[in-house]
Amino acid sequence: MRLDGITVLDLTQLLPGAYATQLLADMGAEVVKVEPPDGDSLREVSVLTPESGVFEGLNRGKRSVVLDLKREAGQWAIQELAADADAVITGYRSGVMERLGADYDTLRQENETLVYCSLSGYGESSPYRDRPGHDLTFTGIAGLLDLSRQSRAERPTLPPFSVADMAGGLFAAFAVSSSLLARERDGDGTYLDISILDVLLTFGQSRAPATLAGDDPGPPGPFTGRFPCYNIYETADGRYVTLAALEPKFWHQFCEVVDRPDLRERHRSDDPAVRDVLREELVDLFATKTCEEWLETCAGEGTTLAPVNTLAEALADRHVADRSMVVDGRLGLPARAEPPVDPATERPPELGEHTRAVLEAAGVAADEIDEIVEET
What we know:
alpha/beta, formyl-coa transferase, domain 3, 16 helices, about 375 residues, 11 strands
C-alpha cells in the first residue's frame, strides 16, 4: 500500500478531492495542495463552524502552495510542477481546467506519464456537466433519497454523512492508485474522468438489476424496512437496536435466543399482512428490555443485533480503539497492512505555507518565484 516517492498535485476544493488525496497522503504520497489566493473553500465552509475540524481532518500531512491560475504566471507554475508530478487530481466542473491552463492535454505535453484524474459531479461527457452540485444533489438524482423512506407517503431523509462526496473521493483514490500501478507495467500515463454521481449509482447494485428488469416495487426495499427481520426497534429505555437477520440462519438464531420459535416461519413473508403482524410483535418484544439488556441477551450468540450509537458513542467504541481509527484527534486510514502503513499525522498546512519551498524544489528560479508570489 505504500506510495512513498509518489507526488500528487491536489487541484481540488471541498470534500471529495480532499478525501481522495488524504487517502493517498496516508499511504505515503507527497500531496501538494494547490490553492487559489483565498484558499480552499473547505477552510471556511459557512455551514460548519471554523472549529469543526473538517479541513484539518482531510488535509493532514499535505503541503500548501498558493497559485493564481487565472494569471499567466500561475499557469506557468502549475505546468512546471506537473512536469515532475506523478498524478494530478482536479475537482472542478467541465471546462474550468482548460481555462486555467491545467487540463490534461496541456499538462501531458511536459509529462507523458502523468496520471490525471478529473473528479467532478457529473463527468466530462454528461449532459449535466455544466451544472453545479453538492452531496444532496447527487444523492437525490441517484435515487438514494427516494429509497431512504418507508413509503411514498413519507418524506425522503437527508443523509447525515456526505456519502456521495466521500464515495467519489474514495473511488478517485482507488483509480489513481490503480493507474499508478498500470504505469509501472506499461510506462503510460492515464486520463481518468470520474463522476461522483456515477460512483454513487454503482452503490445501488442491490436494487438496480431488479429495477432494470422492471420488477422493483420501489420503497421500502429489503434494506429500508420491508422486512421486519431487517429493521430498527425501540427498547424499553428509549434507545434503539438494529436487527439485521436477512439470512434464515441469522433469523433462526435470533428466534432461538429470544425464545420465540413460533416466529421462525414468518421470516421474509411475501404477504404484507403477515409482515405487519410480525413487525408489531417485534416492536412489543423489544420494548420489554433496555438496549443494554438486549445486547447482553444476544452477546456471543451469533445474532445480528447491534445498538444504534450516537456518533460520540461510535467513536468511543472499543472497535475504534482496537483498530486505531482515531489518530491525534482525527479519523485515520481505514485499512491495515503488513508491513504497516502509518497515516499522515503532520498538522494541515497553513494557506500557501510551502509555496516557495515547492517551487524551489521544482527548479523554479528565485526571481520567477517572486513574480508568481506577487501575482497571487
